[in-house]
Design brief:
- The chain is α/β, with parallel strands linked by helices and about 300 residues long.
- It has one domain: Divalent-metal-dependent TIM barrel enzymes (TIM Barrel, Alpha-Beta Barrel).
- Helices cover about 35% and strands about 20% of the residues.
- Helix 4 runs parallel beside helix 5.
Amino acid sequence: MKTSRRTFVKAGTMAALGTAILPGSVFATAKGKGILGLQLYSVRDEMKKDPVGTMTQLAKMGYIYVEHANYVDRKFYTYKAPEFRKVLDGLGLKMVSGHTVMGKQHWDEAKKDFSDSWKQTIEDAAVLGQKYVVSPSMDSTMRNNYDDFRRYMDVFNKCGELCRKQGMKFGYHNHDFEFSETLNGEKLFDIMMKSMDPDLVVVQLDIGNLYNGGAVAIDVVNKYPGRFENVHVKDEILATSGDEKYESTILGEGIVDAKNVVDTLTKIGGTTCYIIEQESYQGKTPLECVKIDLEIMKKWGY
């Protein structure tokens, strides 16, 4: 995701839902090779203007699973959790996961406990029926030195325990700095992979973002087999604007070799959840792009 993506996502109760399906169980109907969904940041402007209308179009395209990128003041796209769940249910959509940054402010070191606001984030995610609660980046102040960075990885593991109590999993989604920045001579991503308990923290590998950090997707997948249950499916081309070398594009049209990477993730990566994301559109509309991306993934057998 681009810098605008990092600044877009903001961190923020369990409500009675009668006979609502428990978190995770709504995904038992996934077909193909697993869950195939869309990160709603791909249609961020449309979601801002008309979330219900936009999701209606996505449902008509054939999307069933979505991942949110907007949770502010205990609201998803201006809707409180129970209200948004009703909207999703009415459209036949399932919120498989969501992006909400977990920052320093969400952990009280003196109390050894999470803030009320972060506990509410987990509770509201459970109301939506999410399977994953994903932190989609990390503030630079959390990665200034090795010891502090490792301590935050311990907090990630604790968050995994917190999510598990609600029937969900905690995840972390990479950008590019995890592959370009080092501490004590080690890349941040490698430190994370050895520090986070795979039983508690899911690594949501974004197979496109990492190219701006100098990494190659297939190499990362081969290096860490079995670690990527949930992935962002993306392709990259040389950027036409902005301050990054690469930008996302239609699947199969860029340098990622996306089909091979996704097939390899299916074979050795442990992947069961595939989330399409496209943030740049090269003259097409966002809705046109995500429709094409879905058709391509289905053509690939997903």
